[in-house]
Amino acid sequence: MARGKVYLVGAGPGDPELMTVKAKHLLTEADVVLFDRLLDPRMLEGAKGELIDVGKSAGSHKLSQEGINRLLIEKAEEGKVVVRLKGGDPYLFGRGGEEALALRERGIPVEVVPGVTSAVAAPELAGIPVTHRGIVSSFTVVTGHEEPGKDSPLDWGAVAKLGGTLVVLMGVSRLEKNVDQLISGGRPPETPAAIVEKGGWGNQRLVTGTLGDIAEKARRAKVEPPAILVVGDVVSLSEQLAAKRIAILRPEAQQEESAALAEAYGFRPVSSPAIALVERPLPADLMQRIESTECMAFTSANGVEMAMKIEGVRSALEKKMIVSIGPKTEAALARCGLGSEKPEEYSSKGLERMLKGKCKRILFLRSAQGSQYLSECLRKAGIEVDDIPLYEVVLSRNALLDDLIRHPKEIDIFAFTSSSTARSLLERAQELDLEDSLRSALEGATVAVIGRPTAAELERLGVRVDVMPETFTFEAMLRALRRLS
Question: What is the distance between the alpha carbons of residues 118 and 375, in angstroms, rounded to a whole number?
Answer without folding.
Answer: 53
